[in-house]
Amino acid sequence: MELFRVGHDVYGQRVLEGIAWDLLPVFAGIGAVVILGHLIYKLIRGNRGA
Amino acid sequence: MATVVDSGAIPTSQAEAPGGRIERHAGVDRLFHWLTAASVLTLMATGLLPVLGVQFNWVVVHWSVGCLLIVLVLFHIVRSLIWQRLRTMWFSGAELARKQVGKYTVAQKLMHIAMTLMILGATITGGTMLAKMDTPLWKRDPYVLSQETWGAIYVIHGLAALSAVTLVMIHVYFSILPENRMYLRAMIKGWITRQELVQHHDAHTKQ
Predict the structure, then answer these.
(1) For B78-136, what is each residue's pLDDT tens digit?
(2) Higher per-residue confidence, B36 vs B201
(3) Is A18–B151 a contact, with Cβ atoms under 8 angstroms apart?
(4) Which residues of B touch A1 (CB under 8 A)?
(5) Most B CBs within 10 Å, among A10, A14, A30, A43, to test the B interface
(6) Nearest C-alpha of chain B: how many angstroms from A13?
(7) How many domains are there within chain A?
(8) B158 contacts in A (CB within 8 Å)?
(9) Looking at the domain assignment, is residue A32 inside a domain?
(10) Three-state SS for B3?
(11) Does A41 map to a domain?
């Protein structure tokens, strides 16, 4: 997976164009993992407390 | 009318208004919060939907709302430096040792720091990128910075946009949890009850 978008200028030199948009699902996934992790933590802690 | 609890230090004899309501967020701060939220969501939609293949004329809306966000950030910086206490948003040893909870919990402070970094990254780079835009106020000048510098600016701006996805997901999730419902209500209506304050916070801390 690429981290950056890279293009070429008029002289054929590589230029940095930005972050790779392929990373969008990764960042959404991190959010989902945190949320799921917290839900599981709450579930386990709730069961222990019961 | 509720009593303002700006720093977390609450004089017990005066803090409770009739009905036991204590003001947690002043109206101007709630307005700032929701305008910022609307701006960030609009910027995410106009910036990221085209990436996902939803094509529309997003540029004008994006930079216009970006300018609004810059104004909101400047307002917040001035307000927090002059009318609020910066240390309200920082950590004390007692808080980190879980012995004390000030106006904001450690988790809320961490979220604030993460949002601050994301929004500052987005607005500083976005504001710089306005130099590449033709607007009613100025003509574009893409040569004001080198190509390498523009590349770094695009990377930071994109990283802020992607981070916004993670942060908004986590922020919305934690704000709608039943145990945090009082904070959501406080951000809408402004107040928490004295019972909620006593249960979840140390009323006399200066943090």
Answers:
(1) 999 988 887 788 888 888 877 778 788 999 999 999 999 999 999 999 999 999 988 88
(2) B36
(3) yes
(4) none
(5) A30
(6) 11
(7) 1
(8) 18-19, 21
(9) yes
(10) strand
(11) yes
**B136: how many CB neighbours lie within 10 A of its CB?**
4
pLDDT band with cut points at 50, 70 and 90 for residue A9 = confident
Burial class (CB in 10 A: 0-12, 13-18, 19+), B104: buried
Residue A2: inside a domain: no
Report pLDDT digits (tens) over B32-54: 999 999 999 999 999 999 999 99
In angstroms, the CA B196 to CA B207 distance is: 17
Interface test with A, best of B147, B163, B166 (most A CBs within 10 A): B166
Alpha carbons B202 and B107: distance in angstroms, whole number: 16
Higher pLDDT among residues B18 and B134, named by residue: B134
Q: Could you tell me if A16 lies within 8 Å of chain B, comparing CB atoms?
A: yes
Residue B41: the pLDDT is 98
Domain that holds residue A30: 21-50
Contact A34 B151 (CB under 8 A): no
Contact A27 B163 (CB under 8 A): yes
Q: What is the DSSP letter of B132?
A: G
Mark yes or no for CB contact B158/A9 under 8 Å.
Answer: no
In-domain check, residue A3: no
Q: What is the pLDDT of residue B89?
A: 82
Separation of alpha carbons B159 and B188, rounded Å? 30
Percent of chain B, pLDDT > 70?
Answer: 88
